[in-house]
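Record filed here:
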Amino acid sequence: MCPMPSRLSPFLLVLACCAAESDDEPRGGVATDRPNVLIVISDDLASIATGTWGPGGEGLVPTPGIDALARRGVVFERALCASPFCTPSRQSFLTGRWPHAIRVTQLKSTLPKDAPTLGTVFRDAGYRTAAIGKMHWMRTRVGEVEFGFDRIAGKIEWQDQLTPEERSVLDEYNRGWSRAERKGWSMSNPEGAPLPLEEKSHMAPFLLEETKAFMEEDGTRPFLAFLSLGEPHAPFHFPPRLLESVDPGTLPLPQVDEALQSREVLGLAAMLKSRRALKGPLTEDILRGALAAYLRSVLWMDEQLVALDRYLEASGRWENTIVIFWSDNGYLLGERGHLGKNYPYREVVQVPLSIASPGVAPARTGELAHAIDVFPTLCALCGIEPPAYLQGVSLEPLMRSGTPVRDQAYSEFVGQMATLETERWKLHLGAQASAGWDQLYDLQTDPGEIDNRIDEADLKPILVDLACRMRDLLAATPPDGVAGESWISSSPGGSADEDIRAIRRALSLVESSRPAVAPRPAKR
């Protein structure tokens, strides 16, 4: 067995402890002594689009709102998400557990109704809680209060307050993106079609106002609030005013050597071939049009964050509120010849993350961090005992003193592939050996993950180490409802081939035993 990294928390699956711990007096005093928490989430935001995380400190468009939230806190330059796909990434963030452990692995995977979350833990500690915006619970809500949140407001509530005329406009707009109407790359909005509603009637301003109203409601208890915006997810909403804000003809496009890619990664070549057979070629005109629509959507989201920053300043909430900015995953904007997500390359799994906390000095760090670490970090910053089932590690030492807290980071798209990276190396493994997704990269010399070195004999010790680490992580975090004897054991060490076979078996087992997809939505 290879040793577990000393800085990673061991896994203890004791779901009952959440309720038990809530009865204890939380450390740090009564709830009124604790800071508020505001978690702002973007959807499919590529790091290079922002000023804070863009190369050289410049984004593809100006993002003063994102930058204002980030510059007050610690900016994590190398933060990963748990999955290159929205639903598993978000539910891992919310529960502090890996997607395979909670068995939320695909778009329509349902988060179990009794799953303890950030909302559960913080409400038990005396916080008011709200989930406002896109949470991706995938139709799990059948009542008004779920997953520990006192207030829920999202797409349904937004649409309910629109006028009949506005609903008619929205329905006509949405008809163009329905599955029956989608053709080729149309969901990526290469035509640059804006949402023709008055700006005040868009969902993003509605969600912002709902969040502000919730924060104002009760000054006697601290709050934990999610503001989860839908931008810039396809079809990239923005108002007509922003049509002239981005010129498609002037946008820089990535240079892609697809012949080299095809030689290095057979799975990637097969994926591109399949996508183009389904959607048609990703021409320069389509890519430019879609990228322009995407960036206009980024600008629209950023305007809401400018308004949010002004509100936090004017209300004095910056003084007593932890503010987190995060994206559920990144996005390929033509890199690797693709437009979208799903594949665990740097452009998709390395995501924007900043945490601004009262008493913690602003900083930037290139040390490894992970979205699954936010839950235990918030517990540490707010003086709440972290539940034992959490599978991340607190980032507080890294924030306060620059002390590294993890020496590896994991991401998975269960049923297809998983990755593990260290400071220097990154291993991709496909769930099936025949899929052609196995890759090994030296991130020190090849940060763009281009030169696949999986077959180099002199790197076999590196492969042995990374496969051992990945197997041990999976062995320590078995999925809910999967019998222990059916799961994999820790690595005996020394055999990459044996460990890789065990990893593939685990990824396939999770997917084959995944619960049924979410039922049809119930009316709230």
Notes: The mean pLDDT is 90.
